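so my prof wants the structure for this chain in the tokens format not the other one, which i didnt know existed until like an hour ago. anyway here's the sequence
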Amino acid sequence: MTQLARKNEAAVLVVDKSISPNAKEQFDLQDCEMETLKRAAIERGIPYDPLRRTYTLAELHRYGLVREGYTREELRLKGIGPGAVTSFDTIAREAARLLPVEAPFGRGVRKWQLPIDMMPLRIFQTVFPPNTKVSSHIHPPHSEEAPGGGLRIVCSGSIRYQNRVFKAGDWFFTPNGEPYEFITDPDVETVVFYKYAFFGVEKGNRFSHPSAVDLSDQ
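here's what i got, hopefully its the right format
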């Protein structure tokens, strides 16, 4: 059993249903998403059908899958094309409603994909309520040489991570395969821009499978 698999034995995915996208939404999984489902099922010891390709979001949650982004085709269906766009545009103000993604390790967190077509590059905006605790979790690495990971750039408020306080203009990168946690500003909302590289993202994968971990055992 791998180190990641051992950490995943007690994994629990808790999705904030007040923030999460529609749990009844159905997805026809691409090949890279089927591979993500397979990896999640194996790590968690959950049976799955390799021939079945259609799942609701609620069903994917049972395997620990989290919606992390939208495909170019989905952007087009929502009226988002390759043209110029700014934060002052109507589509940018509506992005939180049109393009929400999931943040299962913090309560009340709002996260959405920016309405920009630079696929496969996706950028996200995250708004944390005051004093949000993002509980310890881990994202599976792609490989030892290129694990992928998440880059966060603080725009306002602050984040306490690894005993340092990151304020507006500061940033930090957390590689996949390393567990982490953080807490946000106790007094005000914290706004962050976020870029996450996970398995199959360059192929349009919309799902990852992070796991909760207990850092007290580290």
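also thought this was worth mentioning. The first strand starts at residue 26 and ends at 28.
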